Amino acid sequence: MCLNHDEIKQNPSHFEESQANIVSSNTEFSNYKDLIAGMKFFDPHIHMTSRTTDDYQALADAGVVAIIEPAFWLGQPRTGLATFKDYYSSLVGWERFRSSQFGIKHYCTIGLNSREANNEALAEQVMEILPLYLMKEGVVGVGEIGFDDQTAAEEKYYRLQLELAKEMNLPVQVHTPHRDKKKGTERSMSIALEHGIDPKMVIIDHNNEETVKSVLDQGFYAAFTIYPFTKMGNERMVEVVKQYGSERIMINSAADWGISDPLAIPKTAALMKIKGIADEDIRLVTYQNAIDAFAQSGQINVTDFEEPVVIDQTQKFNGNTILRGGQQPRIDKDAIVIR
Amino acid sequence: MKYPELLKMVTTLDKIFEIIRGNANEKELAWLEEKTQNAKSTQLAFVATPRFIGKRPISFELANNQTKNWTLDRLVRVYLLLKLENINPEGFEEQVNTLFDTAEINESIALYSALPLFQQPEKWLLRATDAVRSNIGDIFDSIAFENDYPVKHFSELAWNQLVLKCIFNEKPIHQIVGLDSRANQHLADTLSDFAHERWVADRRIPAQVWRLVTNFLTEIIVKDLESLFLSNDLQNQIATTLVCSQTNNLEAKDLLNKYPISINPEMLTWEYLENQSAICYV
Fold first, then answer.
1. Do B137 and A323 touch (CB under 8 A)?
2. What is the pLDDT of residues A131-169, one digit of tens each?
3. Does residue A59 fall inside a structural domain?
4. Is residue A21 part of a domain?
5. pLDDT tens for each residue of B199-225
6. Global confidence as pTM
7. I want to staple B114 with a disulfide (CB 3.0 to 4.6 A). Which of A74, A112, B55, B78 is the partner?
8. Which domain range does residue A225 map to?
9. Which chain B residues are closer than 8 Å to A318 by Cβ?
10. Residue A304 backbone dihedrals phi, psi, to 5 degrees
11. Which of A301-315, B7-21, B248-262, B266-280 shows the lowest mean pLDDT across its residues?
């Protein structure tokens, strides 16, 4: 989830002062994709519901082979159970299909987000249907859940969903608040530990330089969202990896309806390469660590996206459907003529 | 429930269970046994199936000597639905509606695969036509192909929509159960209109679809056949030769003399065109 512009003004980036310390040089490559040719990426947090089909094409072209779409706040508050239900169904149905057309394996996490946890009458009903979705194929965790305003209602539903995750042996994807982030992050972690959840089953999301140390020290996974203006910039991310290494660290784009970038992972990988981060460390933070964390659900089979997809134009005729497992026909975006 | 209905249910259920028993391991069978004790756990087991049952490909026959190539989890899901109907006949409809409303893609496929095996399949007509409206390829395919629900229960309108959507999406119509038996005049006329639209856009339609007009030729469609003969395309010519030799329409039969094609007789079959369609779809 991102902030609107008013919120940006109210919450200027904490890191603005330290920008000068970051050396940005030699990043003007004509095509960053040359630097990452042949690399595979896994984006463990991206809201494709809010993105266009062109973004799927761009993700596929940049080497993103699998993604996780956490359930989130759509921007417009929901007023009934049916719209929650339809949204969850779209994450395991239509969106999964849309992604497959571009050869990208789509997983999701299902949860009641923190903002809408504040509508308690509705939240109660949503909790009733959550187990049905959490049991579904390709659902790799409970998420994104946690704190936004850090209200009592948010805490109540965070705790209830932690219990669900424990019961179903699923990883938890924890959204940390934009405001009062440091305290909110600590609170999220201590509640998880209080419920007896193994920190290795918890991915603390939207970290920054101020929160990362404590998250790693306590044994949690630390996810970083590369998102302009409100979250991490990728130059800062490079510095984080230089300082903390690559163990239990992963990056994501959280691309959604805000000004965000679905190619944040491939771009950050290219930048890491320029800045001299070792290939293996890049692989861990842009691919493997996310797989290790969410595969604890038992729902990720890497052969689904590691075996190259054969794009055989005749396959669509023998295999019943034009769209199965393959790719959409390409069009030349710059052509004036449309056929 | 009437006795014959009960018998049908029991035998299908037993038959499916035997197939599962021959393909599942002990752990999987124990899970299935444990989860089918009551209606609620059977319903939830349907959702959780792939977490406990493998996705091994299996090959089996249920009826009509029609071989099905499914994965084990799909057959287990169909079994669970029939079991639900068996143990909770009163609440069955509601439980299945909940499953439909919350289904992910593979659950939907299993639900549509099970429809023809339900006790009162006609009750599920709206669900079945929803699958035809789906743009998710595999869901559409689960009602369209190797499924005898449409041929038995679809109205002419719904049937024609199914066939047309298959053609429009370049899918293999010959996999629709009962394709020739439900050909009709409306479908033939609409196909002719559709072909005209494609031709004016400089696009084509697969030659094998012309099989659907054989017994419903009109003056307009005979003209279409003539332009197909003149199209310089071997597949079109094979299709029209087949239509003209199988129809009772005399004008069409005359076209055979007017435009004879010399060709290896082995190629002069609809099956040949089914397998060649790739070239024609481009």
1. yes
2. 999 999 999 999 999 999 999 999 999 999 999 999 999
3. yes
4. no
5. 999 888 999 999 999 999 999 999 999
6. 0.86
7. B78
8. 39-318
9. 278
10. -60, -30
11. A301-315
* Residue position matching structure tokens 């949204």: A87
Residue spans of alpha helices (H) in chain A: 5-10, 53-61, 81-92, 94-100, 114-117, 120-134, 152-168, 181-194, 212-217, 234-244, 264-274, 279-283, 289-294, 303-306, 315-318
Q: Is the pLDDT of residue B52 over 90?
A: yes
Q: Phi/psi zone of residue A281: left (φ > 0), alpha (ψ -120 to 50 degrees), beta?
A: alpha
Q: In chain B, which among 96-155 make CB contacts under 8 A with chain A?
A: 101-108, 135-138, 140-141, 145
Chain A residues near residue B281 by CB distance under 8 angstroms = 317
Average pLDDT over residues A42-61: 96
- Tally of domains in chain A: 1
* B56 interfaces chain A, CB cutoff of 8 Å: no
Cβ distance of B51 and A298 shorter than 8 Å: yes
> Cα–Cα distance between A64 and A266 in angstroms, integer?
8
Q: How many Cα neighbours within 13 Å face the side chain of B232?
A: 0
Mean pLDDT of A288-292: 98
Q: Which helix (H) or strand (E) holds A143?
A: strand A139-146
Identify which of A275, A300, A140, A289 has the alpha carbon closest to the alpha carbon of residue A224.
A289
Angle between helices B26-35 and B39-52 (to 10 degrees): 160
Once rounded to an integer, what is the mean pLDDT over residues A98-123? 96
> What is the per-residue pLDDT for A219?
98
Residue in chain B nearest A87 by alpha carbon: B102
Closest in A137, A313, A322 to B104, CB measured: A137
Question: Closest to B136 (Cβ–Cβ): which among A97, A138, A298?
Answer: A97
Confidence bin at A22 (pLDDT 50/70/90): very low
For the sheet with A41-43, list strands across it. A41-43, A64-70, A105-110, A139-146, A172-175, A202-204, A221-225, A249-252
* Cβ–Cβ gap A93/B106 under 8 Å: no
- What is the per-residue pLDDT for B63? 73
> Which residue of chain A has the CA closest to B73?
A137
Chain B CA closest to residue A89: B102
**Is residue A136 within 8 angstroms of chain B, CB to CB?**
yes
Cβ of B104 within 8 Å of Cβ of A97? The answer is no
The per-residue pLDDT of chain A, averaged, comes to: 88
Nearest CA to CA, how far is A74 from chain B (Å)?
Answer: 19
Look at residue A18 and tell me whether its pLDDT is greater than 50: no
Interface test with B, best of A135, A168, A297, A317 (most B CBs within 10 A): A317
Q: What are phi and psi of A113, to 5 degrees?
A: -70, 160
CATH number at residue A289: 3.20.20.140
> What does the pLDDT read at residue B219?
97
Q: What percent of chain A has pLDDT over 70?
A: 85
Among B107, B54, B115, B55, residue whose Cα is nearest residue B82: B115
Question: How do A139-146 and A105-110 pair as beta strands?
Answer: parallel
Inside any domain, residue A108: yes
CA dist., res. A74 & res. A202, Å (int):
23
Q: What is the mean pLDDT of residues A112-124?
A: 96
- Quote the mean pLDDT of chain B: 92
- A22 part of a folded domain: no
From the list B48, B136, B140, the residue facing A135 with the nearest CB is B48
